[in-house]
Write a structure and sequence with these properties.
- This protein is of the alpha/beta class.
- The protein folds into two domains: 93 residues, Translation factors (Elongation Factor Tu (Ef-tu), domain 3), CATH 2.40.30.10; 124 residues, Nucleotide-binding domain of ferredoxin-NADP reductase (FNR) module (Rossmann fold, 3-Layer(aba) Sandwich), CATH 3.40.50.80.
- It is built from five helices and twelve strands.
- The strands form two sheets. It has a six-stranded antiparallel beta sheet with strand order 4-3-6-1-2-5. A six-stranded parallel beta sheet has the order 10-9-8-7-11-12, sandwiched between helices.
- Helix 3 links the parallel strand 8 and strand 9.
- Helix 4 runs parallel beside helix 5.
- The protein starts with 5 loop residues before the first strand and ends with a strand.
- The model has no long low-confidence stretch (mean pLDDT 96).
- The protein binds flavin-adenine dinucleotide.
């Protein structure tokens, strides 16, 4: 069930750069001292009376005292600039958690997750939560990126697929490169090839609107009901 939005205070506990344009920020909760949330939800950081930026939790909801965000700062707007300027110990105010891009465990359908680049953030939280809590049903992740250097958390997803035979990891890139063994092409073409049947399927898609719309249209052409594609549009 969605939590009520809270006014929260935290402080920056650590900063990492998993690639040059993606920042990971650990936020240690101050008030309240822990935050209950559902995997897939986001927080809202204010930048003026009517201006906010939304960022999803990367970390699993089991970690309530320290949240991790992961943000692509290439857009270089006010949110990106603020994140680039953060240092350890800085105070951060935000509201949260909120958002309905959460996995429905009561849904018996097979789940396919589709993430475009930084859209992996809430999906990573959902998958961590599912497998930490003993989810045994078939699920797959189609992780589309422009090139292999963008495959954040790749080792983690490969490890998950080795440990849980019911989980299939399907990384895909726009253009094939030497040694690449995954799928290749634009997001909708990749989904068209990798999703063979839409029978008893639910899809959770996160990334940019163009990719999500194209993926959904492809699935609808295969006979899927539009409402069976749950989405979170980051841009
Ligand atoms: C519910 C929700 C959750 C989100 N969670 C995350 C998250 O976990 N990580 C994250 O990196 N972003 C996330 N975003 C996007 C985020 O809110 C900001 O838009 C992003 O961080 C850029 O902020 P900015 O102020 O630098 O640029 P903005 O002024 O917000 O954006 C400038 C332009 O770039 C576009 N844009 C934003 N992000 C991207 C992108 N990655 N690639 C291409 N174009 C983009 C915007 O639509 C806009 O046209 C989320 C958005 C929503 C609605």
């Amino acid at each position: 069930m969605a939590q009520r939005l809270k006014q929260c205070r935290a402080e920056v506990a650590a900063i990492r750069w998993p690639r040059p344009d993606v920042i990971e920020v650990d936020l240690r909760m101050v008030e309240p001292d822990e935050l209950a949330f559902e995997a897939g939800q986001w927080i809202s950081v204010p930048f003026g009376p009517k201006t906010v930026r939304a960022w999803s939790m990367l970390s699993s909801p089991a970690r309530r005292r320290v949240l991790t965000l992961a943000v692509d700062v290439a857009p270089s707007g006010m949110g990106s600039q603020w994140l680039r300027g953060l240092t350890v110990g800085d105070p951060v105010e935000f509201k949260g958690p909120t958002g309905g891009f959460v996995f429905n465990r009561a849904d018996p359908r097979r789940a396919v997750f589709f993430a475009q680049e930084i859209g992996i953030v809430p999906v990573r939280s959902i998958l961590a939560d599912l497998y930490e809590t003993g989810f045994g049903r078939p699920a797959s992740l189609i992780y589309w990126v422009r090139d292999p250097s963008w495959l954040l958390y790749d080792a983690e997803f490969r490890s998950l697929a080795r440990r849980y035979p019911s989980f299939t990891y399907l990384p895909a890139v726009r253009e094939a490169q030497a040694g690449w063994r995954g799928d290749t092409g634009e997001p909708d073409a990749v989904v068209d090839r990798l999703v063979h049947s839409v029978d008893r399927l639910v899809v959770y898609a996160c990334g940019g609107s163009d990719a999500i719309n194209a993926v959904r249209d492809t699935l609808v052409k295969k006979g899927m009901d539009r409402k069976s594609v749950k989405w979170e549009k980051f841009w």
